[in-house]
Design goal:
The protein is an alpha/beta fold and about 130 residues long. About 20% of the residues lie in helices and about 30% in strands. It is built from two helices and eight strands. The chain has a four-stranded mixed sheet with strand order 1-4-3-2, covered by helices on one side. A four-stranded mixed sheet has the order 5-8-7-6, covered by helices on one side. The longest helix is centred in the N-terminal third of the chain and has 12 residues, at about 15-25. It starts with 6 loop residues before the first strand and ends in a 10-residue tail after the last strand.
């Protein structure tokens, strides 16, 4: 089968503000922008370029009202440092009912779109 995911689409009241957060968080580049949609792609020439799906931020008239049905899981080298960096960019920790002992941190971007920051992989599991 010749099928791949082109983009993950994120509905926003303000695509520019949400794309600003994710651009800074991921270090990705804007490859398309108009008032109603913005596309972020991995850095040109990086191992993810042309492989990872684009992020497409689309203007919609209604806010997020419940738990996301789809979210991003991010794998950092240092979970604690990354959580603090993301908070400094405008993210916040959120509870969706996860137990205290989980190994990930649930967060939300400036418009409330949830994502998880996973624990770092042990050296023997890193690719």
């Amino acid at each position: 089968m010749n099928l791949r995911i082109q983009s993950l689409d994120i509905d926003c009241l303000d695509p520019s503000a949400v794309a600003d957060f994710w651009q800074e968080a991921l270090g990705w580049r804007r490859t398309h922008e108009d008032p109603d949609e913005i596309v972020l792609e991995p850095p040109a020439g990086s191992p993810q370029d042309g492989v990872a799906p684009d992020l497409l931020f689309l203007r919609v008239p209604d806010p997020t009202t419940g738990k996301n049905r789809l979210h991003l899981d991010l794998r950092p080298d240092d979970q604690g440092a990354e959580v603090e960096r993301l908070i400094s960019l405008g993210a916040r920790r959120v509870s969706i009912g996860q137990p205290d002992e989980v190994t990930w941190v649930v967060m939300a971007d400036p418009e409330g779109n949830e994502f998880c920051v996973l624990r770092a992989l042990p050296p023997d599991q890193q690719a």
